[in-house]
Amino acid sequence: MSKKNLKLYFTASIAAKDQYIHNYRKIVDYIEKNGHSIIADHILNISEKEVNLASREERLKFHSQLEKWIHSSDALIADTSFPSISVGYEISLALRVGKPVLVLYSDGEPPSLLAHHSDEKLLCEKYTPQTLPGILDDFIHYIDSKADLRFTFFITPKIASYLDTIAKKEKLPKSVYLRKLIEQDMEK
């Protein structure tokens, strides 16, 4: 069982919600039942028609909120049983900012663009109603075991300026950039 209350972000296809809502609810309910919070109302409580009727301003405002939710979460869980470009974008964003991601699918094969993507923070799992609890428990344990250690050190203003430039250019936190450099060096 998890040592702390995690804040998770859930995403899935709204277009296929009628077909998969039972699965979506099982995922969300299981996470909540185990004492964690999960951001999922934007998937569970909205229809495709409502999304399509939203104005450009409303969509941009929602997109900004979505990014805040992902940044503030400990991890992302995505049900990709039905393909969705929006879900793919959210997965990509979460990985870019260093969040662990669990990609679930109940039918067929894993998402083709993610199945062979090598990132230790990306896990793809086919599930059934029977296997889902174990998969979610394993993912929560994985998140807990990956708790980062904080390491602080001093840098020159020149290095700080360079990191600021890279962070803006790459659209990722400075710590993620530095971590990637270290990981690349470790692979040598």
- Count of DSSP strands: 5
Strand content: 5-15%
Largest sheet: 5 strands, parallel
Distance between termini? 36 Å
Oligomeric state of the chains present here: single chain
Average residue pLDDT: 86
Number of domains: 2
Briefly, what CATH class of the largest domain?
Alpha Beta
CATH fold label of the largest domain:
Rossmann fold
Q: List segments where confidence is low: pLDDT < 50 over at least 5 consecutive residues.
A: none
Shape: globular
User: Total number of helical segments?
Assistant: 9
Radius of gyration from the alpha-carbon trace, in angstroms: 18 Å
Topology pattern, helix = H, strand = E: EHEHHHEHEHEHHH
Structure summary:
This protein is α/β, with parallel strands linked by helices and 188 residues long. It has two domains: 7-145, 3-Layer(aba) Sandwich (Rossmann fold); 157-187, no CATH class. The chain has helices at 17-33, 41-44, 48-53, 56-72, 85-96, 112-115, 132-145, 157-170, 174-187, and strands at residues 7-12, 37-39, 75-79, 101-105, 122-126.
